[in-house]
Amino acid sequence: DMIIRTENAAKSYTTGTVTTHALRGVTLGIPPGSFTCIVGPSGHGKSTLMHLIGGLDRPSEGSVFLDGCEISTLDNSNMAKLRAQKIGFVFQFFNLLQSLTAAENVEIAMMLAGIPEKEQASRALKLLALVGLAEKADAKPSQLSGGQQQRVAIARALANDPAILLMDEPTGNLDSAAEGEILAILRSLHAVGKTIVIVTHNDEIAKTAENIIRVMDGRVLS
Ligand code: ADP
Ligand code: ADP
């Protein structure tokens, strides 16, 4: 009853005649509701592992299971559907749409998830309030600090009420004050039962984690 599971998941990239073994056969399980950090040196396979467990990419070998469903064998459209139901993503560089307000950035994720239009605005405001940004609902990303933009990105990731939040270096581009705010939000999401999985170099976040997955040279150290 792990919410995320991999069995001997391997991933190679071939560019021309060069093959990189980014992951060399990883078996792991992440319990529902846990706070898990994926740590390890740069270039050792952390982002690749995150892309596999998030259904953003498929393993070259082995299997990936999300909530009991083997995602590695789904076609693109079913993989996208499952991903949208189960997972919210947060990335290092926020990836907000610059021409839209904070609220609209959250609403657009709801549109994609099929949340009824009449519920979108009020739900977006609730999520922005949850990350402490109710008063910035009408601001454009360029009018927000990096930490505020990342909080909008977290609100957007929560648009579809996913069971799992997957984050790749969410504080990698933030100062320590903003980092603290993000960490407080992550703790509160963990407290309400979200499964949180974070690729991070941040020691404060890693200290909060219940599980640490150490990635080294494409393998997971126990
Ligand atoms: P980080 O060390 O912060 O995880 P990387 O530079 O290793 O950043 O990777 C960031 C992303 O860039 C990866 O998830 C992958 O999609 C892409 N990437 C990394 N290395 C290569 C490469 N050699 N060729 C093509 N894309 C790459
Ligand atoms: P990390 O996140 O730990 O920095 P990555 O998973 O991004 O590591 O990368 C692991 C290895 O795979 C690195 O050698 C990287 O250059 C390579 N890599 C990652 N993505 C790609 C890609 N899309 N194409 C080619 N090589 C890649």
Description:
With 222 residues, this protein is of the alpha/beta class. The chain contains seven helices and ten strands. The strands form two sheets. It has a six-stranded mixed sheet with strand order 6-7-8-3-9-10, sandwiched between helices. Strands 2-1-4-5 form a four-stranded antiparallel sheet, covered by helices on one side. α3 (102-113) crosses α4 and α4 (117-130) packs across α5 (146-157). The two termini are 20 Å apart. Belongs to the ABC transporter superfamily. Macrolide exporter (TC 3.A.1.122) family.
List keywords for this structure.
222 residues; alpha/beta; six-stranded mixed β-sheet; four-stranded antiparallel β-sheet; 10 strands; binds adenosine-5'-diphosphate
Which helices and strands appear, and what pairs or packs with what?
Blueprint: E1 4-15, E2 18-30, E3 35-39, H1 46-53, E4 61-66, E5 69-70, H2 76-86, E6 87-90, H3 102-113, H4 117-130, H5 146-157, E7 164-168, H6 176-191, E8 195-199, H7 203-208, E9 211-216, E10 219-221
Parallel strand pairs: 3-8, 3-9, 6-7, 7-8
Antiparallel strand pairs: 1-2, 1-4, 4-5, 9-10
Short description:
With 222 residues, the chain is an alpha/beta fold. The protein has seven helices and ten strands.
**Side-by-side strand order of the widest sheet:** 6-7-8-3-9-10
Mean pLDDT value: 94
C-alpha end-to-end distance: 20 Å
Helix count from the secondary structure assignment: 7
Helix-strand makeup class: alpha/beta
CA gyration radius, whole angstroms: 17 Å
Shape: globular
* Helix percentage: 25-40%
Strand content: 25-35%
State the major sheet: 6 strands, mixed
Bound compounds: adenosine-5'-diphosphate
Low-confidence stretches: none
Number of strands: 10
Order of helices and strands: EEEHEEHEHHHEHEHEE
Domain ABC transporter: 4-221
Keywords: ATP-binding, Nucleotide-binding, Transport
InterPro entries: AAA+_ATPase (IPR003593), ABC_transporter-like_ATP-bd (IPR003439), ABC_transporter-like_CS (IPR017871), ABC_transpr_LolD-like (IPR015854), MacB-like_ATP-bd (IPR017911), P-loop_NTPase (IPR027417)
GO cellular component, one term: membrane protein complex
